[in-house]
Specification:
single chain; about 325 residues; alpha/beta; D-Maltodextrin-Binding Protein, domain 2; 2 domains; 11 helices; about 20% strand
Amino acid sequence: MKKLTALILALCLCAAISGCSAGQKTTLSFSTAATTGALYPLGATLANLWNETLTDVSVTSEASGGGLDNLNFLYDGEADLGFAVTSIMYESYNGTGSFEGRANEKLRVVAGLYYNPNQLVAAKDSGIESLADIAGKRFAPGAPGSTTLVESELHLEAAGVAYPDGFTPSYVGFTEAIDLIRNRQLDAAWIMAGVPNAAVTEITSTAGGRLVSIDEDVIDSLMEQYPWYARYTIPAGTYAGQDADVTTTAIKLCLFCSADLDDDIVYELTKTFWEHLDEVKATNAALSAVTAEDAVTDLAGLPIHDGAARYYKEIGLLE
C-alpha cells in the first residue's frame, strides 16, 4: 500500500512539473527606436506576430533612443532583441568607436533587413548645398543615443567640418527637427531612416526643406575606410520638390540578438518573420522592397546566430 501511495504521489508530481513546463514561455525584451520613426511600429508588428504565432515566447517591444541604446541594452543584459545598422553593430562587436572597452563578442545577426540611407535635409534658404556648408550653421546631428548622431559625426568629419564645434548643434529627434526648421530656428538636420521617411516628407512638403546630396569624395572616403557603407540613390520624386536624384550613403539595418539566446527560439523567430513577410510589409512601408536574400548580405562580416543560420540553410541562402 505504501509503495502504491508513493507511486501515485510521484506520478502526480511529474504531471504537475510537466504541466508547468508546458505552460512556460520565454519572455523577450525587444528594444526598437523612438516612437516617431519607422522602427518602433515595425518592432510592435513583429512582437505581435511572434506572440500570436508562437506558443513558447512572449515578446515585448520597447521604445528606445535608437541603435546605440539598443546595443548597450544587449551588452548590459537589459534587452534580448534589437534593431541597429551594421556600422555600430561592427563597433559593438569589436569594442571600437562608441563601444571602446565594451566589446560584445556575443552579438549576433538574426536578419539583415533594408538599407538605411543618410538623408541631409536643409531649409531652402539656408545656403547649404554640400556638407561643408554646415560649418557655422544651426544643425541637428541627431538625438542622444541614436545612430543618426554617429553617422552625422563621421560624415561631417570626412567633409572637413569640426564636430561638434564647427556648427551650432541641436541634439533633437526627427519630430523636433521638423518644427525647428519650420520655425526658422534650424538650418538643417540629419535623418537616417528608410525611404521614404515621414519626417523628411513633412519637412520637404510643409516646412520649406529640401534634400542635399552627399559629396562624392566624402562617399568614396567613407567607403574606403569602413566595411559597411554603400553608395545609395534616392530617386527623383521621392519627396516633394525633389526633381533630381540625390546621392548619399546607406547602411544595412539588422535585427540582432545575443548568442546566448536559445537556438530553437531564434530559429522560430526567424522562420516566422520570413514566412509572414507579406503581412508585415502590409503595415510597414520600410520593408516594401525587402526579400529573404537581404537577410544574409552586406552584414559587414558580423556573425549570424546559429538558430537563424539553420533557417537560412533550409531555404538555400547559406551552405
